[in-house]
Amino acid sequence: MRHVTLAAAAVVLALLVAASGFATGPAGGEEFSPVGFDETLKTGLTGVDVQQARAAGHVIPQAQVFYSQYQYVVGYYGIEALVTGLNTERRTEQFGQPLAIFVTDLSGTGPELTPDGFITLSDSINRGWVRAEDAWFVVGTPARTPGGPAVVPFGEREDADAFASTHDGEVVDWERLQSVMSERSDETRRLTAPVAEQQAWADRTVERARQVLDRPVSVVVGEDAPTLAAAVEQAPPNTTVEIPPGRYAVNLTVSKPLTLRGAGEETVLTGGGNGTVLTADAPRVGVTSLRITGVGDVGVRDVGGDNGTAWDRRIRLVYGYGDAAIRLADAHHSLVEDVTIETPANGVVALNSTGAVVREVTVNGSDTWEEGFMSTLAMYSKMVVEDSEFNGGRDAVYTHYADGVVVRDNRMEGMRYGLHEMYTSDALAANNTMRNTDAGIIVMTRPVGNVQVDNDVRDSQLGIATVGAESYTVNNTVVGNEIGISIGTSRSLYRGNTVVRNEVGIRSSTLLPTNDVTENDIVANDQPVGVELGTLNAWAVEGRGNYWGEIPGVDRDGDGIVDRTYRPTNPVDLSAGSSAGGHALAHSPTLGAIREFQQALPGLRAATVVDPAPLAAPAHPERLAALDVTTEDSP
């Protein structure tokens, strides 16, 4: 007993001594001073937006905040992001109170606006920092950043007045700015994925594209014209060329609004293994009810003669101009429907073809992804890919600068990536089924506003992997993957997902804990959560965390929340559900004191996840029942 008492005293003494060495903020009452922005942990805009603004010489107002419970200085691109971050209760819970706030001081820099509203400076050398409470902010002007309207900060009132007068704005102080922006807060809307409007746009786009199926028949191949090429040449615009059953050797280009309609699988177009089989370079071309084989095997073009050095240009050349079964080029609102494709290269490539639709298509690619290419490639094309089946090849759907693309209700199996989004924002991936891939859905290059909803990814290395900002990963099912969901985003929502029997349920690699993770069922994974970077991540929103299966604690008041914080990255909590000793240790007062001490002092915080309000019952019990997972299963 004496040994126990001495041990407890030693723990208390150690806590007291350690606490005295972790005073928050500058020692000795010194003032905070701004740091170089490159030294902060940044949030507010995507890396792509920042790089593009920098390359164009545009200025993005910045801010930096010293928080009481966070060991890093947080940098914000945009004053709007700063105010939103400060006024969000969940951020205060994780970072603590702001101790000092600095914003860009544009006094003396001669700020001007481009015709598009971007800020440029005639004298950037004088740009500095000013405390937010001493600054003046100009609102209501055409000024903007890549993320939207911009608040323009100044250290001197007369400079703010001059800018406001020139650009018809209003000058407000720090207190008034926070009040105005709080009234405009869209935090509630951010917790709801904007699926309905994207689905509605897709519905309208499909309906419009399918009107090409109603065109009258003008030419029948073999009856009115000897070859398919002759029939296309002969047919008037806005009519249909009918292609009877048979095998047609073509490497054909359609340059007028025309519909090619076969008789189903018995109508075969073949390119003889050389180049692209069918090209449409006019709007509103329809291709339906046929099969395509004999696609050339050049998936990418040699870029040796290109003098461009930008990675993006190389990607456009090597991917966008490889061989394909069907190429849509400037073929807006065209339709590819009920087509089966056998290809060693690409299936359907859409370049600059907004409003195009690929639906009810089957693409069979190579057996190994290294030998194949894209089943559908959307490049500079806001389009719809739906109700299709993709087997093998490299990526089922690859998007490149295809903002707003909708990929829904498809099945993808046996390739590298099911859906691969590059430089694509505001995309919707809905109700797709992926199996045996390197990644079911992978979002790269830090886009904004992408939505992943109701997808089902199993038996893959990665289920869903996202980066970027303000994205939504909602109501997906990820089962039996090496990693179920990989979080690399900021200011994004992860809600209602079923994460079961993965080696790692959810992996978080974000440095700043700005994501909302709530009402997910994370059960029966080998490791429920893996954290690679960052510090404390509190996974709960508005008093509702996630369901972890059988965990320590009970719901005494019946509000659906377990009356004890759960730490899915803590070995003690992980073992509590399967071991009596672990359960006792998880509830020990000494361990509780150490945890409180660690969370109070930023220097002792490890990269970890805490669920302050774990759910007592699954968010979606019907899905767990379908997967034969019981509520007693451990995390």
Explain the overall architecture.
The structure is a single chain. The two termini are 36 Å apart. This protein has a 23-stranded parallel beta sheet that branches. α9 (228-234) links the parallel β13 (217-220) and β14 (240-242). Helices cover 21% and strands 32% of the residues.
Question: Any key phrases for this structure?
Answer:
about 625 residues, alpha/beta, 23-stranded parallel beta sheet, twelve-stranded parallel beta sheet, 14 helices, about 20% helix
Short structural summary:
With about 625 residues, this protein is an alpha/beta fold. The protein is built from 14 helices and 49 strands.
Strand content: 25-35%
Mean pLDDT: 85
Question: What's the alpha carbon Rg, rounded to whole Å?
Answer: 29 Å
State the total count of DSSP E strands. Answer: 49
Q: Please outline the major beta sheet.
A: 23 strands, parallel
Extract low-pLDDT stretches. 1-25, 597-605
User: What's the overall geometry?
Assistant: globular
Helix content: 10-25%
Fold blueprint:
Blueprint: H1 2-20, E1 41-43, H2 47-56, E2 62-67, E3 73-77, H3 79-86, H4 89-95, E4 98-105, E5 111-113, E6 119-121, E7 128-131, E8 136-139, E9 144-145, E10 148-149, E11 152-154, H5 157-167, E12 170-173, H6 174-183, H7 187-190, H8 195-209, E13 217-220, H9 228-234, E14 240-242, E15 246-249, E16 252-254, E17 259-261, E18 267-270, E19 278-280, E20 286-293, H10 311-320, E21 324-329, E22 335-342, E23 346-351, E24 357-359, E25 362-364, E26 374-379, E27 384-386, E28 389-391, E29 395-400, E30 406-408, E31 411-413, E32 417-422, E33 428-430, E34 433-435, E35 439-443, E36 451-453, E37 456-458, E38 462-469, E39 472-474, E40 477-479, E41 483-490, E42 493-495, E43 498-500, E44 504-508, E45 516-518, E46 521-523, E47 527-531, E48 536-538, H11 571-576, H12 580-586, H13 589-600, E49 608-610, H14 621-626
Parallel strand pairs: 1-3, 13-14, 14-17, 15-18, 16-19, 17-20, 18-20, 19-21, 20-22, 21-23, 22-24, 22-25, 23-26, 24-27, 25-28, 26-29, 27-30, 28-31, 29-32, 30-33, 31-34, 32-35, 33-36, 34-37, 35-38, 36-39, 37-40, 38-41, 39-42, 40-43, 41-44, 42-45, 43-46, 44-47, 48-49
Antiparallel strand pairs: 2-3, 2-4, 4-7, 5-6, 8-11, 8-12, 9-10
